[in-house]
């Protein structure tokens, strides 16, 4: 298998493989919150298989829902036809989403959900006759996916540069992350300088901005950058005041990750467009959704000749198997009171993490629910990072593997996103492994 993988598979980010002792880790099975490799060794899945897996692997109720649906139909197109799980799921998603989001547009990954939101926002203003509204405000460092539209609204230069001529026009607002902020130390001291910067962009580009795109509460792939409370609410007020749509990307934060079903709920914010993916099927099958309001949906109604149609419809849109898995996922949230039971787990992580400050290399610890980032630096007093070539974050994650825990870093931010199904004891044990790995590698 390793030979076949090496010979034939093009891994994302050009063969970014993590070899340990000259071996690529090949996963053969999953069991609860553990992954099992081809030699039978079990590892904790400490990043929920890229932030997706909510209730553990081989969760009986999800497996069964997929099997039951297989006995009916695996796939049928949504172009001109409806299917039962997709319609049932849309109703459920509208019920749990922030108020005002009334329509569900399906796709198959976080990137496509964002792509759709961006295209909808753009076309909406064209249909409304406000044809100058073409630009997007996005946050520096943001990651919203890797299709052309979603790359456009990202803030990572490395992803942008080569595709620059193809992208939507954007202006960048500073990332609202106090630890890395150059505008001030805390919102109390700086008067929310990051929000003031957004208002300045809205004023400078008045009448030209279609939408602002934000991840709520935490910029995940940017390095688990937790926003100061009140940021999202303030940004929402500004977008309303300036007549700009707000796109909230809940791809990473949705489905319980931050302690509520959606992160928007912490701030009482209802956006104009909201994206969800990753945890939507509990991490079982590819599915995503872009939710929007009556106001936006209605603008697209009319005969094709009126050129109002939203031209976007992937082959696997609204796939019944994936929608059946998503319905089972939501039933588990309800039946097992997943959100209600998160409190002690989040607190256990917080308690354990407090001890990490003792480690000389730990410069910052950021936690929002069970989204956790531990930032390593060579000198935390002066905030001097490690030389990138040392790959400290990567080395820590390779070390945790030796101790039976799989995690992935974001640069020198060690990311911990365990399945929500992890018990308090399992969370503590995984954090003990991370502590030990950081201590040993950075010693
Ligand atoms: N938005 C956010 C906030 C994400 O974290 C990600 C993936 N990490 C995406 C979009 C893209 O999702 P996908 O990888 O499923 O395309």
Automatic annotation (TrEMBL):
InterPro entries for the chain: Aminotrans_3, Aminotrans_3_PPA_site, BioA, PyrdxlP-dep_Trfase, PyrdxlP-dep_Trfase_major, PyrdxlP-dep_Trfase_small
UniProt record, GO biological process: biotin biosynthetic process
Main location class: cytoplasm
Cofactor section: pyridoxal 5'-phosphate
Modified residues (N6-(pyridoxal phosphate)lysine): 278
Superkingdom in the source lineage: Bacteria
Gene3D superfamilies: Aspartate Aminotransferase, domain 1 (3.90.1150.10), Type I PLP-dependent aspartate aminotransferase-like (Major domain) (3.40.640.10)
EC number assigned by the record: 2.6.1.62
Any one annotated GO CC term: cytoplasm
Record site: Participates in the substrate recognition with KAPA and in a stacking interaction with the adenine ring of SAM: 13
Reaction equations catalysed: (8S)-8-amino-7-oxononanoate + S-adenosyl-L-methionine = S-adenosyl-4-methylsulfanyl-2-oxobutanoate + (7R,8S)-7,8-diammoniononanoate
Positions bound to substrate: 143, 278, 313, 408
GO terms assigned for molecular function: adenosylmethionine-8-amino-7-oxononanoate transaminase activity; pyridoxal phosphate binding
Annotated compartments: Cytoplasm
PANTHER family: ADENOSYLMETHIONINE-8-AMINO-7-OXONONANOATE AMINOTRANSFERASE
Annotated protein name in UniProt: Adenosylmethionine-8-amino-7-oxononanoate aminotransferase
């Amino acid at each position: 298998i390793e030979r076949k993988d090496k010979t034939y598979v093009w891994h994302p980010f050009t063969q970014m493989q993590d070899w340990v002792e000259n071996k690529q880790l090949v996963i053969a099975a999953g069991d609860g919150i553990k992954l099992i490799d081809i030699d039978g060794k079990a590892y904790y899945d400490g990043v929920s298989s890229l932030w997706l897996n909510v209730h553990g692997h081989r969760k009986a109720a999800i497996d069964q829902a997929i099997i039951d649906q297989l006995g009916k139909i695996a796939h049928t197109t949504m172009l001109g036809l409806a299917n039962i799980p997709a319609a049932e799921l849309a109703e459920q998603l509208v019920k749990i989403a922030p108020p005002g989001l009334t329509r569900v547009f399906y796709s198959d990954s976080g990137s496509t959900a964002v792509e759709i939101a961006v295209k909808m926002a753009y076309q909406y203003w064209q249909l409304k006759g406000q044809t100058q509204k073409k630009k997007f405000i996005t946050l520096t460092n943001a990651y919203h996916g890797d299709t052309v539209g979603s790359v456009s609204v990202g803030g990572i230069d490395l992803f942008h540069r080569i595709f620059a001529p193809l992208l939507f026009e954007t202006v960048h607002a500073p990332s609202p992350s106090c630890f890395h902020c150059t505008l001030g130390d805390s919102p109390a001291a700086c008067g929310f300088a990051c929000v003031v910067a957004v208002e300045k962009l809205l004023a400078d580009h008045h009448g030209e901005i279609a939408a602002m795109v934000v991840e709520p509460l935490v910029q995940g792939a940017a390095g688990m950058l937790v926003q100061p409370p009140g940021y999202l609410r303030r940004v929402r007020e500004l977008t309303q005041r300036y007549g700009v749509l707000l796109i909230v990307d809940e791809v990473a934060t949705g489905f319980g990750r931050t302690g509520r079903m959606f992160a928007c709920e912490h701030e009482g914010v209802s956006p104009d467009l909201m994206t969800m993916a990753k945890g939507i099927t509990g991490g079982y099958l590819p599915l995503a959704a872009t939710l929007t309001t009556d106001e936006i949906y209605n603008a697209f109604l009319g005969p094709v000749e009126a050129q109002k149609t939203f031209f976007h419809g992937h082959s696997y849109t609204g796939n019944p198997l994936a929608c059946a898995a998503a319905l089972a996922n939501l039933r588990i949230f309800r039946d097992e009171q997943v959100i209600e039971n998160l409190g002690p787990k989040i607190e256990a992580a917080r308690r354990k993490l407090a001890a990490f400050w003792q480690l000389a290399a730990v410069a910052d610890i950021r936690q929002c629910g069970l989204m956790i980032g531990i930032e390593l630096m060579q000198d935390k007093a002066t905030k001097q990072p490690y030389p990138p070539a040392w790959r400290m974050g990567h080395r820590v994650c390779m070390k945790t593997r030796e101790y039976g825990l799989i995690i992935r870093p974001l640069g020198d931010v060690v990311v911990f996103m365990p399945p929500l199904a992890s018990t308090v004891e399992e969370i503590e044990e995984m954090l003990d492994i991370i502590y030990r790995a950081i201590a040993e590698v950075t010693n």
